[in-house]
Specification:
25 strands, globular, alpha/beta, 563 residues, twelve-stranded mixed β-sheet, four-stranded mixed β-sheet
């Protein structure tokens, strides 16, 4: 069987201007990166403002497992399927577009090995997208670290702002999993190198600059948000911002091209915008607002995804991205596999291919809670997509179908990994129908609710937790943010993706657990508050056998081992 990269390398890619022409984008409004990638020009992006929006489809999933669920693969396969169905529908000329996040180099060389879909439902060029792409992440890292350098430089040259070096909040970032950088000491070597202090690194996808880029839809908005970044506090505890350091202009210069959406294609020629990439377990987990808005102006259906399970990515997509932008998903696809559900039911990874109706029945609790959250908390129309594996038995499919149907939610099996768009055609028809049904989007909490109560609302309504706690210093920090005028911000809970709880070992749908907030971070430019829970790391580490060990390039320049 061919690997994902081998399948992608056999694909016949169309020139990017041909893909753009399917969306009526003129050649002279493209800024090409080779033959198969391009950004869109600012004048063209501005010209779209008066156009009506298409339908927005969100793809999310059950809580992730080592068995895999295939959320990105389903997003791509559904986009291809929608175009197949729309093309067959009386030739109405309607189009679908896919919107995805950019992969981070850390996971590519760590555990995931790539994030461009899989099998015959991939975005291409797969290697480019997973490795540097158009340089957006490098620009974000440069802008972030420029601010760090200007902060330390200001302190070195007299500290006119009276910044308290004990209360510096701005870290540095690198786009790689590197646990050795979780705690570092900077400015060693004497007076010429500044004032020594303890600091740390985050991965680029956890950077507030990443979040800001992903929530901005113009250079003006980008600069406004960059200016509001709080980098630390003075000795009398007043916040110091990027604008105090006069850094926002230079940062915006570094980001001016990164803000433009990237256009690529699927293996079946569906246009795809791949732009921005915050993680959903440590950030807000959505592609850029600019790309989503652009796609909605250019297409009749836009299929996007939110990272990890619906308790993380979909919650933040709705409570942060939709709240800030006015977007509303017309339909939500919840992706699961029978293998993953059996894992949530207690089966070990080695035994997932064996029929086990008892474990499947027990694991259904995870899927059912996600469905209830989407339908009853957020008020969206949803459909369950079962990403089918060869080992799935007729009895397992029957049980799963009965359980989901009993909830009053449609369910479809899909084979897009093996069959491309045609393997998700029934799902596409269901999505088209769901998009025409009325729905009323609601949030997990109101803007006016105090920050602590917002955490409690998500923990109890979405996670099934009984309690929320934090030590006295964290509670005091949250209260200080509340009284300082940030209480109206939404929250971004950083926790493990593997469980509804903050304990990665609790599978299924645990109840009565405790969510402990161990750290709070103000993202004043992104305009949300990050609540770090459990042992989740904003700088991940590589596994014992990192994916990088398998990745190589042959003498002819062909990349291998990137799966």
């Amino acid at each position: 069987m061919l690997s994902d990269i081998e399948i992608a390398q056999k694909a016949k890619l169309q020139p990017i201007n041909v893909i753009a022409q399917t969306l009526n984008i003129p050649d002279d409004e493209l800024e090409p990166f080779g033959r198969t990638k391009a950004k869109l020009s600012y004048p063209f992006l501005a010209s779209l403002a008066s156009r009506p929006n298409g339908k927005l489809v969100l793809v999310t999933a059950i809580s992730p497992t080592p068995a895999g669920e295939g959320k990105t693969t389903t997003t791509v396969g559904l986009g291809d399927a929608l175009n197949l169905v729309l093309a067959a529908d009386s030739g109405l000329g309607k189009r679908a577009v896919v919107c995805l996040r950019e992969p981070s180099l850390g996971p590519v060389f760590g555990m995931k090995g790539g994030a461009a879909g899989g099998g015959y439902a991939q975005i291409v060029p797969m290697e480019d997208i997973n490795l540097h792409f158009t340089g957006d992440f490098a620009a974000i890292a440069a802008a972030h670290n420029l601010l760090a350098a200007m902060l330390d430089n200001h302190i070195h040259h007299g500290n006119a702002l009276d910044i308290d070096v004990r209360r510096i909040a701005w870290k540095r970032v690198v786009d790689m999993n590197d646990r050795a950088l979780r705690r570092v000491t900077v400015a060693l070597g004497g007076p010429a190198n500044g004032f020594p202090r303890e600091s740390s690194y985050d991965i680029v996808v956890a950077s507030e600059v990443m979040a800001i880029l992903c929530l901005s839809d113009s250079l003006k908005e980008l600069k406004r948000r960059l200016a509001n970044i709080v980098v630390g506090y003075t000795r009398d505890k007043r916040p110091v911002t990027a604008s105090d350091l006069k850094a926002q202009g230079a940062m915006a210069v570094l980001l001016k091209d990164a803000l433009k959406p990237n256009l690529v294609q699927t293996m079946e020629g569906t246009p795809a915008f791949v732009h921005g990439g915050p993680f959903a377990n440590i950030a807000h987990g959505c592609n850029t607002l600019f790309a989503t808005q652009t796609a909605l102006k250019l297409a009749d259906y836009v299929v996007t995804e939110a990272g990890f399970g619906a308790d993380l990515g979909a919650e933040k997509f709705i409570d942060i991205k939709c709240r800030k932008s006015g977007l509303k998903p017309d339909a939500v696809v919840l992706v699961a596999t029978i293998r993953a559900l059996k894992y949530h039911g207690g089966v070990s990874r080695d035994n997932l291919s064996q029929e086990n109706l008892v474990a499947l029945d027990a694991g259904m609790a995870n899927l059912e809670r996600h469905v209830r959250n989407l339908r009853d908390v957020f008020g969206v129309n949803c459909v369950v997509c079962i990403n089918r594996f060869d080992a799935d038995t007729a009895a397992e499919i029957d049980l799963l179908t009965q359980r989901v149907s009993a909830m009053g939610v449609p369910i479809h099996l899909a084979t897009h990994w093996a069959d491309g768009g045609k393997g998700a055609a029934d799902l596409a028809r269901e999505v088209i129908a769901l998009c025409e049904e009325p729905s009323e989007l609601t949030f997990a909490y109101a803007d006016a609710l105090p920050l602590w109560e917002k955490v409690r609302a998500v923990a109890q309504k979405i996670y099934g937790a009984a309690y929320v706690d934090a030590d006295a210093s964290v509670r005091a920090a949250i209260e200080q943010l509340q009284t300082s005028g940030y209480g109206h911000f939404p929250i971004c809970i950083a926790k493990t993706q593997y469980s509804f709880s903050s304990d990665a070992t609790l599978r299924g749908a645990p109840t009565g657990h405790r969510l402990t907030v161990r750290e709070v971070r103000l993202a004043a430019g992104a305009e949300f508050i990050v609540m770090v829970c459990g042992d989740v790391m904003t700088m991940p580490g590589l596994p014992k056998v990192p994916g990088a060990e398998q990745i190589d390039i042959d003498d002819d320049g062909q990349i291998v081992g990137l799966f």
